Amino acid sequence: MSFFTRKRNELEAKGIDPGRIPPGQYYTERFPVLHAGSVPKVDQAEWDFTVDGLVASPQRWDYQDVLSMPTVRRTFDIHCVTKWSKLDTDWEGVAVSELMSRVQPLPAASHVLVIAEQGFTSNLPLIDFLAEENLFAYRFGGAPLDPEHGWPLRLVVPHLYFWKSVKWVRGVRLIGGTSRGSGNATAITCTAIPGRNSASGGTDWRRLSLPSYATPGRLRWLPADGFEHC
């Protein structure tokens, strides 16, 4: 019996529909940690969050400003490109739609560049960024988010592979096209949809810089020197 079959059988034994796990993924109750570099040391008093670029009203907020915004609590499954899936994760924070209502994206905006600590960035099509369930989270499982999981603020985009849920977020820039970015484990994409995986045989994802799609289960990689607009 294969590892993946065994894991799906374990889910069925628990009364959980294994169809919630995208092809090529396995279920775990752990919350694995993967990132490039060290966990940043954040001074909450100096921390700020900016939204600029193609918006009508650029904004800058400190941490208390973010905490004072309307809070949402959302539960969903998450999927990592390293093949694990974690079900019914519980997040609290500020809805992306709430922040965007305060800056008013301009019609020319088509993508966002998510800016994080230590110079890391990631890109997303605006339509994915504005998905209704997305939020900027500061609590997980009813407790403050652990630093290794992105405290003080993490973008959560559950319909995409979890590397798009950028840790240690410091801002968002709305732009009129894609940006290559740089990021977690050096793998940055424009989209990252779980469940669609057609990676070429023998390819080591850790050595690549720009996958073109990242939907869990359907992943088509580009070489490190390649680039594809999405």
Walkthrough of the structure:
- The protein has four helices and eleven strands, in the order αβββαββαββαββββ.
- With 230 residues, the protein is of the alpha+beta class.
- The longest helix is centred in the N-terminal third of the chain and has 11 residues.
- Helices cover 12% and strands 27% of the residues.
- The protein has a single domain, classed as Sulfite Oxidase, Chain A, domain 2 (Alpha-Beta Complex).
- The C terminus is likely disordered.
- The strands form two sheets. Strands 1, 4, 5, 8, 9 and 10 form a six-stranded mixed beta sheet that branches. A five-stranded mixed beta sheet has the order 3-2-11-6-7.
Quick summary:
This protein is an alpha+beta fold and 230 residues long. It has four helices and eleven strands, in the order H-E-E-E-H-E-E-H-E-E-H-E-E-E-E.
Task: Indicate the topology.
Layout: H1 3-13, E1 26-27, E2 48-53, E3 59-62, H2 63-68, E4 72-79, E5 84-95, H3 96-101, E6 111-116, E7 121-125, H4 126-129, E8 135-140, E9 143-144, E10 154-156, E11 169-175
Parallel strand pairs: 1-5, 2-11
Antiparallel strand pairs: 2-3, 4-5, 5-8, 6-7, 6-11, 8-9, 8-10
